[in-house]
Amino acid sequence: MSSPSPPPEPEPFEATVTVTLSSQVPAPATKSSSTKKAAAPKLKTETKNKQLKFKFSPEPETYAKFMNDILESHNLLSKYGPASASSRFPLRVLVPPAKKADAVDIEKFKEYKDMVVDAATRRTPPTKLTVIVTLKDIKAAAKKRKSSGGSENDDESESGSDDSGNGKDADEPLQLERELGRLRGLLEDKYRNPHDAGYTYRTDDGDLLPLTPGMMKEWTRALYDHTATVALPPQDNVAFSVAHRGRTLPGRRSRQPSGSQDGLAHVSSIFGSLTTLLGQTVPHSIPSTPIQQQQQPLASPAKNTPSKLSRFLSHAETALGITHASSYLEPLERNGYGPDVISAVEDSALSDLGLKPGDVIRLKRGAQAWWNSPEAKRQRTSSPHLSPSPPPHNTHAIRFEKHYADGGLASFFGSSMIDGRNVRSADYTWWYYSKEECKMLKVPDGKVPLLAEEYVGAREAEDPDDD
User: Fold this and answer.
1) What CA–CA distance (Å, rounded) separates 415 from 400?
2) Residues 6+ positions from 46 with CB-CB distance below 8 Å
3) pLDDT above 90: percentage of residues in the chain
4) Distance, CA of 97 to chain centre
């Protein structure tokens, strides 16, 4: 009687793999007394997720390719690869419906093969897998491979580029900045306005949504985290949410008759209150004997002018704590929202313009108080004895771009250019958008951008002798 033949090899199957890479990075520094001895930097765990498609089969070559595809998904192959079935790093594989605690540890080819065979012989092979790896294990495997005769990067010193002692590559922050800059450039190229330096997104229903610097920053980060695409903004962000865009986007007409009636009723109530207030100052009859007036007549209400909105937004930045309030000047003007009516505008309408919910409350309360203050009633004067108030400081007046030597760019906003020098000019150069030329121009030698507060780290290590 012949012995039974071995079972046939299972058919390969393809699945979408989510690769979770964890690494140790320095935690933000905390203030400490100068008399205390400097302590070692604290570390925190940072995770990044990437996706790839892979066709699984139980061969050593496929095992090696799987590890190298994992490295490539996080841009680590050129530095820590290539891996092979005999030169490998450990990983954990989670095959649904198993929970994270039941993930399979893969440290050698046999364990990889058992995992593939088990998954392939199920009634329905899995279409999604999760792989968990650590940067520390990847570095250790690469270091072991070099010490055993590997030829890649043998000239790198251990202290310089292999392990710096804090668990983080010195190049990683620059790589992240370059990738964010590249993604920001894709958005700017697609949504740049033809007539100015702003950006506008057209929604599926034809609405025009102005993109503020904060919205562009959030969209860029969502692209990096794979929660949005260049064509579709992050829907979990309130600034992009359809439910919060309302009826007041530029170019959009109201489709809700009841909403229009509510708005007219609100305006009517305002005029009714004003009529009642003014009517109280008119006496019903003329007294036979003149009497001394006990109350001062009501001051004339302030008249709204184009400059008042700009002055109020400057006041909102300095006194109300609304960061970059001046950047909303254009959308507020476009919708006819002056400081005289902002307190009556619906919260959702102001949120549609990009304002945070807390800033909406501050803006509405501050507008009513400012409009009733002497500052709102102050008139411009041409008297030689009085100088006009200076224009508000617009921290986002100029758009700057950082052009990297090896390609890619990152955009920032600032108020002007100041004397200084870029000591990292070999890595990148600064450019700015000229409204007169309607194009990007290189920042002149001896000048550097004065960036807005939110981009304070963009010129790190520049101009060490200027302060």
Assistant:
1) 10
2) 22, 23, 24, 25
3) 25
4) 34
